[in-house]
Structures are given as structure tokens and as C-alpha cells.
Amino acid sequence: MKEQVFSYYEALGEDAARETARFFLHFPAGYDFNALDEKTKSAFLSENKRVNTALLHALFAGYLMEKHQKGHLISARHSETFGRFAQAELGALKQEQVFLALLDTQLDLISWEVVFVGTLTEVSTSPREIFQRALQQNAYAMIMAHNHPSGNVQPSEEDRAFTSRLVDLGERLGLPLIDSFVVTKKAYWSMAEEEGPLAEKS
């Protein structure tokens, strides 16, 4: 990042070495710009208000672009790709957790968030919470994924019953659940892969 900051100041005809040094006094390496507080912002802007204001705007724009691109790196069009992603995200967790993937019309990921955290062996889930989040995000479709800390990748009867309930509710609301994953450290299990499209399973 140091080279980019230096180039920015240099392109504006500033003393690039001096301004870059000032920048890293306020924002050391590894600083999280999401945590930018008013005191740090004001101190930085006071050094060179016009130029530094533009730099902060550019950094924020870069953050938004990166966030947007990351969301579209994962697609649900191929269950194996998504299964490996979910396995990497959840497989090593010590407690059972349920994550919800919300998808756009191209089946690209627009949101990936934990909706429930349980114990070592079980989790209590609510369809109301799941559909509430999906509707708030204006999602086109959903995928549910949860981990089994025991290492057994096969779904339980409770897992199957809950998935069937979500499929039924999703069809009624026009917000389909297109897959349900169980993951462990070493493997993933996809209901759509193993048993066919969920839309046929209500």
C-alpha cells in the first residue's frame, strides 16, 4: 500500500515522501479503515485538508469496490464450488452454527452470515429469522449451510425435517431454498447433489 499512497501524493505534485510518512503516522500498516474514528480522521485531514480528503474518499471507494467484487467471487451455480467454500468457512468451527447464503438472480452471493450458534452437538433454528433476513436483503434465492463438529457429514433427521420445512415455506413465498449443506473439516454434503433439486422435495 505504501507505493500506492506515495504515487497518489506524487501525482498531485506533493512532497510524496513527506506526505506518505505522515499518512503512516496516522494509519500504521494493517490499520482497518472500517474502524476510522473522528479523532484520527480530523488529525489526518488537518495535515493537508484538500489532498487528504480526496485520498480518504478514494480509499473508501476502493473498499466498496473490493467488497462488491468479493461478494461475486462465490457463485452458487456449481454446488461443489459452494460446498468447498462453506467447508473452508465452517468446517473447523467448534460449535454447530448455521450460515445463510443469500443470492441474486445470477446466483451470485450477496450476503453470507451466521444466523444461529448452538452447542457442540445441536443448534436451534427459526425459519422466521431466516426468511426475515432474506426478504430484507431482497434476495432471489437462499442456501443454508451448517457444520457438524462431530465430523459426521451426514445430515440428521432433524436437519432433513428443517430443510423440508424451509423448502416448503420458500416455495410459498417465492424465495426458494436451492441447497442445504452439511460441512466438516474434511468433507461437505449437499442435499441437491445427493438427492436432487430441492424444489421437487416439498
UniProtKB/TrEMBL annotation:
UniProt-listed Pfam families: RadC
Lineage: superkingdom: Bacteria
CDD domains (UniProt xref): MPN_DUF2466 (cd08071)
Stretches assigned to the MPN domain: 75-197
Keyword entries, A-Z: Hydrolase, Metal-binding, Metalloprotease, Protease, Zinc
Similarity comment: family membership: Belongs to the UPF0758 family.
Matches recorded under PANTHER family: DNA REPAIR PROTEIN RADC, UPF0758 PROTEIN YEES-RELATED
Protein name: JAB domain-containing protein
Phylogenetic placement of the source organism: Bacteria, Bacillati, Bacillota, Bacilli, Lactobacillales
